[in-house]
Amino acid sequence: GLSQYSSDPRTEWDLSAYSTREQVLEAVRNLRYKGGNTFTGLALTHVLEQNLKPDAGARLEAEKLVILLTDGKSQDDANLAAQTLKNLGIEIFAIGVKNADEAELRQVASEPLELTVYNVLDFPLLSSLVGKLTRVLCTRIKERSHKETAGSAVKDTPVNTGPQLSPTDLKISAVTSKSMHLAWSPPVRPPKKYRVVYYPSKGGTPKEVVLEGAVSSLQLSNLTSHTEYLVAVIPVYDAAAGDGLRGVTSTLPLSSPRSLRVSELSHNSLRLSWKAAQGATHYLVLCSAAPDGAED
Fold it and tell me: What PANTHER family does the entry give (predicted)?
């Protein structure tokens, strides 16, 4: 699958779009460059929410790899978005061209960095990476696929994406300007704990709630109004973590005053009246002369 980004990410084709090498190469030849800004954090979030889901061709049992190719420093928080992917067991390779920030590439990429970070001076030089990168990717997939058979020699918590360990059917309801309610169907094998991670899609500090495995709902409060939030529900077992259940929704805007009415009382005064805004504690009233505008 491939997505291209600037300030707004765009899916070029999904994982399930092509089934042969020739079809993929033809799609690459027909790709048109998308100029613009470099919002890498937003792009990684797009990949997580749009491209790495079953209806886009992501198979639950398959290893999840993301290759980031960038020629500049990100204008938003790429590290935060990358950490979210890595926390969900997704491995990131970072390839920089020309003006890419190598320190940022090393932050975004998964360990070990000597295998996952690459940097070249110009686009034609990317061809020199193809052979090595192909071998490294295939080796990493094999290594990760066999983690569970390594026993105590493996330090990382294995990620088991089997459906018996993963919750389903995330429902987000009772959305207000400051809160929302989450509920999900537990997996066949109840987990020991749930980690619920949520944060604004445009960037912000992730917050986390840990729940007992018998619980399958949560009320999120103290949210920011009129903001799109990404949510992940991750089941945690003694020796494994199930596949995260993800969702996205926006809080409502704060209520506004309505039905503004103006009545002139004298040569230098006006009376304003309106229907109250629910929850408002104060009002700020601004006025200026029109059309040229005097002092507010």
Answer: COLLAGEN ALPHA (PTHR24020), COLLAGEN ALPHA-1(XX) CHAIN (PTHR24020:SF39)
